[in-house]
């Protein structure tokens, strides 16, 4: 939500046009009270949790917010920049999350060749 607010704070015409779609992707607040789901979340390795150089959940949220707001190229560029750090960290769940964000951003930007290379989804 914070990332989306930051994108909305600098809204241009494209962001305004995509505001409805961007907010429709937000999770319900009831998700926060689902203890079973919250306990099942995968945590980052200790090195990342202590500032060890992998992408943060805030950076991934920013990619998603940019994509949802119609800023496809910016989302793709940011996601591409996160990929090397995720790979260096060698934490497969985080790497898959970055790949998914990059694949989705590439698809939205119309860059299907790059999406095929990076999306963890079945090709």
Give an overview of the whole structure:
The chain has 123 residues and is mainly α. The protein has one domain (2-118). It contains 9 helices and no strands. The chain has helices at residues 2-9, 13-17, 19-24, 35-39, 46-49, 57-68, 72-89, 92-109, 112-118. The longest helix is centred in the middle third of the chain and has 18 residues, at 72-89.
Residues in helix, %? 55-70%
Order of helices and strands: HHHHHHHHH
Distance between the ends:
30 Å
Which segments are poorly predicted (pLDDT under 50) over 5 or more consecutive residues? none
- Describe the main β-sheet briefly: none
Mean pLDDT: 78
Tell me the fraction of residues in β-strands, as a range.
under 5%
> What structural class should be given to the helix and strand makeup?
mainly alpha
Total helical segments: 9
* Shape verdict: globular
Radius of gyration, CA atoms, in whole angstroms: 15 Å
SS elements, strand count? 0
Whole-number tally of structural domains: 1
